[in-house]
Amino acid sequence: MGFIRARGEEQKKIRIQQIVDAAAMLYEEVGYDKVTFSQIGRKLSFSRLNLYNYYHCKEDIFLTLLLQDRWKMVEDAKETFSGAVTDRDEFCLTWASLLLRHQRMLSLFSITNTVILRDASSEMHRRFRMEMSQASDELIALAQKMFSGFTPEQAYFFVECESSYALTLYPASLEYKTSQHIDIFPDVGRGARHFVSLYVPILKILLKGLEK
């Protein structure tokens, strides 16, 4: 498309979403490391200067994408779990399946602190932290709805720990390695397991610990 500067807030929102969508497409094609600010602009027929009207850097674009993915996961969780959990084993499997529906979120989230935030703008970093906190609050409220015996502290601990485990385990999973075209060596005995088989046992231990 030829670049036409957005006029008005609605057009600006549309242009921002086009930029984020272009970054998402490039991410799927070549992976985070190989995506450049200029490539994102070329995907949309934007010049580098045009792109600067909306974002300071590639990292800010990917933080916006990650925020969108996180909110989609939160909404998915609220639709998937509408009442109290009665079967813990079934819950663990369903929660793991929920996370696998949002693999890009897991992938980007796992490199946020070590890679993306190093060169993000302070303004976007602050917005990211604030919105991630809001999304966590939504999940904490959901945890209390699913597990009526949870105190607010237990619900907070559940959300913080399940997320930390997921972000640690996902990069070691077959799903991640397949999506990133990383070699897998099943004969070695390590790094050749599916996410669910890695994550569900940890989630069961977490819930059992919180019940005490």
Structural notes for this entry:
With 212 residues, this protein is mostly helical. It contains ten helices and no strands. Helix 4 (58-80) crosses helix 6, helix 5 crosses helix 10 and helix 7 crosses helix 8 (152-169). The protein is globular and about 55 Å long.
Q: How many β-strand runs?
A: 0
Overall 3D shape = globular
What structural category characterises the helix and strand content? mainly alpha
Low-confidence stretches: none
Compose a concise summary of this entry:
Helices cover 67% and strands 0% of the residues.
Compile the SSE list and pairings.
Elements: H1 9-30, H2 37-43, H3 48-52, H4 58-80, H5 88-100, H6 103-109, H7 122-146, H8 152-169, H9 174-179, H10 195-211
Spell out the key features of this protein:
212 residues, 67% helix, single chain, 0% strand, mainly alpha
